[in-house]
């Protein structure tokens, strides 16, 4: 039975017999050069071809093999790119470097899973971003912050001696979608991860992940050099690792501590990627505790890592109330003045929106504004504010909206994709991170459909320009092995979910509408007139010139548009404006009317999805069918409760009750 454990590597017999014949002919012998990944490539191909075609490929090293893998001199393929062609009934896979064979193999596998014809293959794939990472918010005690799929995958008690078989399957899944870096632990970082006993455990994991071209990074606590008794209160729940009285980045002993620690890490993990740091954010220690800047702090770690080729990923998620009355403006105000002050091996990591992983937000204005600093987006795959593991919400459309967001930093067309791929400023690093939605639940992500978000994240990190249609269709085919008509139904279920979730849970980018700590249930009453204004004349936050002036953090065209209630994109209306209930919308209806309609969309969406899912019951294996149905039924209850709470709350303010 299908449990979902196999994810999108759910190899099943190819149904179309003529096609199957042609695959058998082309995949039966493989000429695989010796390379770093040849063992896992052979393993994966054997498993896949046995299950899909019923054959065991022969590995032969001559030109007669039907699949020819070989190195080529095309340097522009880089360390990870590949070419796939069909040449006189032979499949040619070429790469400039070893990892190209690994990724190319997963592409060859995908061709079968998606039943693509092989006659006119002409594929050239080079990842647009070099760093494609998952960030795990996993604590050392096994919990996952904002995780909704069980406990952590990392079995710290058993490591390094025992290696859970899931580690390999985790690595396979990531490699198949191009993920090449993982941060193992929570950004609210327990310093003990840097202790030698933990580093040995990390090293054991690195040993498995590197077989799939995945590097390990660790979230480092800025106060790690300190002895526990000297650390700030937030850290009392953790043990310590250092022995100093300070973490002052200007103190030579502190610098020395980091240098020594980093040397130790590399002695155990030679391909260690680097550190991810959350500093001076939500109580976490940081350089500002010593009147130093984020740059001064980041650079100390960067200098320790530099000789080994490691990087520092420094988060920009800060919102110190002293910086500005409006929380949304703080990160930009703190980081923009530091542009150019970071060492070259530092990347800043910014959430897609300036607030906090809301269902919908305009893009963080630092994108396009930072000219001399590499800036990478942090997307959230785990659905903290977006229905957790109960709601079916497909996030690819949200991420596309973000990637297509035009910053106008160098005129029209300066969208986020261009910025992060280095087409606007020649910044050194091209990178993207996603906060993982994995856990030890049998299907990895809790909701079977949440697997699609992991998949889509990887594919967009490889190629931000990939179409959602292609990604979605490939996910469905390789996960559900269903026929075309069921695929259409599943697509129909997934595609509108983000829009409808956002419209019903955070209408017109209202933002912060849930309870304060759980971020799932409605919390309009607690948030009202704290996070946004509401009265019987209107709702929203005035962030225009005569409000908090957030609009001025955007480049002129956006600034002018966002500032003007008539030109502001309606989907962002409440983020930038306090909107009168009687304001006229583009549709000709009042804002009040549209707002009320908008709230209903969550319940409507799930009701439709229940019908659609029922309609394909015969085409889906029973276990996964039932499990998804149970989620949908729970979603239906919770969406109703959310809606009722919204209506109950807003009716007190709406002119037409
Ligand atoms: C959110 C989230 C926290 C997390 C923080 C962060 O606020 O609720 O759990 O630690 O983001 O990204 O640092």
UniProtKB/TrEMBL annotation:
Pfam families: Glyco_hydro_67C, Glyco_hydro_67M, Glyco_hydro_67N. Homodimer. Keywords: Carbohydrate metabolism, Glycosidase, Hydrolase, Polysaccharide degradation, Signal, Xylan degradation. InterPro entries: A-glucoronidase_C_sf, GH, Glyco_hydro_67_aGlcAse_N, Glyco_hydro_67_C, Glyco_hydro_67_cat, Hex-like_dom2. Residues 7-108 form the Alpha glucuronidase N-terminal domain. GO terms for biological process: xylan catabolic process. PANTHER family: ALPHA-GLUCURONIDASE A. This is Xylan alpha-1,2-glucuronidase. Residues 445-652 form the Glycosyl hydrolase family 67 C-terminal domain. Belongs to the glycosyl hydrolase 67 family. One of its GO terms (molecular function) is xylan alpha-1,2-glucuronosidase activity. One of its GO terms (cellular component) is extracellular region. It comes from the Bacteria. Its EC number is 3.2.1.131. Gene3D superfamilies: Alpha-glucuronidase, C-terminal domain (3.90.1330.10), Chitobiase/beta-hexosaminidase domain 2-like (3.30.379.10), Glycosidases (3.20.20.80). It catalyses: Hydrolysis of (1->2)-alpha-D-(4-O-methyl)glucuronosyl links in the main chain of hardwood xylans. Residues 113-444 form the Glycosyl hydrolase family 67 catalytic domain.
